[in-house]
Amino acid sequence: MAQNIVQILQDKGIDVPEHHEEMLVNQWAVFEKMRATVDQESLADYDIGLTHVPGGDGK
Amino acid sequence: MTQDLAKQSIGELAPLLQNKDISPVELTAAVLKNVDKYDSQVNSYIEIQAEGARQAAKAAELEIASGNYRGALHGIPMALKDIMYFKGETATMGSGIHRDFVPDYDAAVVSKLKNAGVVFTGKLNMHEYAWGATTTNPHFGACRNPWDLNKIPGGSSGGSGAAVAADMAIASLGTDTGGSIRIPAASCGIIGLKPTHGRISKYGCFPLAWSLDHIGPLTKTVHDAALLLETLSGYDPRDPTSIDKPAQYYSGGLSEDLKGKVIGIDEDYFFRNVDKRVDEAVRQAISELEKLGARIEPIKIPSLAQAEFAELVTITSEASTVHHQNLIKHPEMFGEDTRFLLEFGELVTAVDYLQAQQIRRKLSNEFAQTFEHVDVIISPTLPFLPPLIGDNTVDINGQTLSFLDEVIRFTGPGNLTGLPALSIPCGVRDGLPIGLQIMGPAFEEEKVLNVAYALEKLQLMKGQKPDLLSVL
């Protein structure tokens, strides 16, 4: 997992200090627990009106 | 007398200034004297602008003497978090990268305060780029809590909280993306108000996360918070998140009458896993409000169960977007914790981000439904008391938990929904203040302010303030 995380960041051109690797893995585990609280089914097609403003700001 | 002036609120000082019973010059001198005396230990200022403040105070004195009194903020010494731009002055954002950045325009809030005649005493310490809640700043030094210099003042607006609590500014402004006004307010025993998203323009304020960022006051009294809110509110087309809703004369409309008011309590979310000292103080305050005629109604907001995910995803994704280029080009210039969080934000997926926005919409709708039958929702501001500087963990009733995971648990929903939320001190336990959070319906800050005003009248703090003389 640590290698995957480091690889994802390196592919973006981000240099990860060695001592961050374990910290990132641990925080990712916390994040995955939080992600498990998401009610995926109720969100699936829930429309949040994500849009772009035609004509730009102030239109 | 001179030093006592710095202890007073805007509400107390304004009539004295207007009637020329005191001068902005002596008031500013009193504030600067405290800065000189205490800030070498507290470290709430990044930059002290003593000479500029004295000159501005003199100008205000002359203006008031000549009959041009501008209003309640005229001649009041304030210092702002060093993330709001002053034309031609350095704005560091508490960072190494922006250490020498000089904006060429004033932030909207700075323009408004300048027009109101505020005297600026300097720029206040903060968590680097506002991305954290300790204000243990690697570039400008750790800011310390005036109640206990070994403890954090909270953050990210920690300098604002500490300076106001220690009478080194009469009032301040902070920014709040996950709780960064309310957390230092709670930790330092003062008032912190995060208004509705869009109420105060963020033009000229460096972003942490656009959709969650707010600007708001940190003050000694509820009245002062109301006064600053009405001064700073208003539509600004230069801020894409600004909303055109009329502000009110909040300070003049404050009422402590709670008869018939309904206070919502969500036990499952806002009272789960709370330090027993915090829990006890907040419940005691709620019971006092009940005695004043408020009715308590249990509520349940189901999507709060997903709020921590939504807050973490939104704040990390947006912050990592803001700093993406610098994380690639100058990673070594970030402090350790900021760099780590920025790296983490690069791992979150687009699906995570959009699901977080779906949760936000659901959460906003559930809060709106709840506010159809309650006036405000009350909770603790923080689930713990301020930890030691340098600690990454907090103790909650014997459990050791991650500071990062716990710190915005109760404040984050206010950012996700954009609803107004205020922290007010409700007691002192083991020498540290405890904050109570009041949330209200969108653009109805007066409901939040009125409940806070009633609570303030109960004097639950019993006049206790940090005693810096005894700890220095």
UniProtKB/TrEMBL annotation, chain A:
Domain of life: Bacteria
Protein name: Uncharacterized protein
UniProtKB/TrEMBL annotation, chain B:
Record keyword Iron present: no
Domain Amidase, residue spans: 26-449
Keywords of this entry: Ligase, Transferase
Keyword Ligase assigned: yes
InterPro entries noted in UniProt: Amidase, Amidase_CS, Amidase_dom, AS_sf
Gene Ontology terms, MF aspect: asparaginyl-tRNA synthase (glutamine-hydrolyzing) activity; glutaminyl-tRNA synthase (glutamine-hydrolyzing) activity; transferase activity
Domain of life: Bacteria
E.C. number: 6.3.5.6, 6.3.5.7
Top class in the EC scheme: ligase
Similarity remark: Belongs to the amidase family.
Protein's recorded name: Aspartyl-tRNA(Asn)/glutamyl-tRNA(Gln) amidotransferase subunit A
Organism: Planococcus koreensis
